[in-house]
Amino acid sequence: MNKIEHIGIAVKDLENSNSLFASLFGKKHYKIEAVESENVLTSFFKCGPNKIELLQATTEDSPIAKFIEKKGEGIHHIAFAVDDIESEIERLTNEGFRMIHEKPKKGADNKLIAFLHPKSTNGVLIELCQDIQH
């Protein structure tokens, strides 16, 4: 794993949260993107060299809706940049970590993504992110 790619924050209302975080960071979000496979609408902010991803559920049965129902708004996941997501999934599986996604899939912000199950990472949802090469 190379670095923290972004921190994901689950929010109930993306528009209100965009205003809140724009005030906090002193600048607007740089991108809003729907990820239909996850039933989520995302918004990205840059804060120095770091990125923050806000996530709003688009359906009542999406993972973000379930997270907010159970835990409320707040930090949802920490994403790490990797060079080769498939080999990283294999390495982590061999180390005994449990994957939610055995194969990478397309995520927001031009990334291939896969999540580790939080039951194998002390309750922290970890996302692997690899840039999609064009």
UniProtKB/TrEMBL annotation:
InterPro entries according to UniProt: Glyas_Bleomycin-R_OHBP_Dase (IPR029068), MeMalonyl-CoA_epimerase (IPR017515), MMCE/EMCE_epimerase (IPR051785), VOC_core (IPR037523)
Protein name per UniProt: Methylmalonyl-CoA epimerase
Highest taxon above the source species: Bacteria
Family matches, as Pfam families: Glyoxalase_4
Family named by the database record: Belongs to the methylmalonyl-CoA epimerase family.
Lineage: Bacteria, Pseudomonadati, Bacteroidota, Flavobacteriia, Flavobacteriales
GO molecular function: metal ion binding; methylmalonyl-CoA epimerase activity
Metal-binding is among the record's keywords: yes
Domain VOC: from-to ranges: 3-131
Alphabetical UniProt keywords: Metal-binding
Originating species: Winogradskyella jejuensis
GO terms (BP aspect): L-methylmalonyl-CoA metabolic process
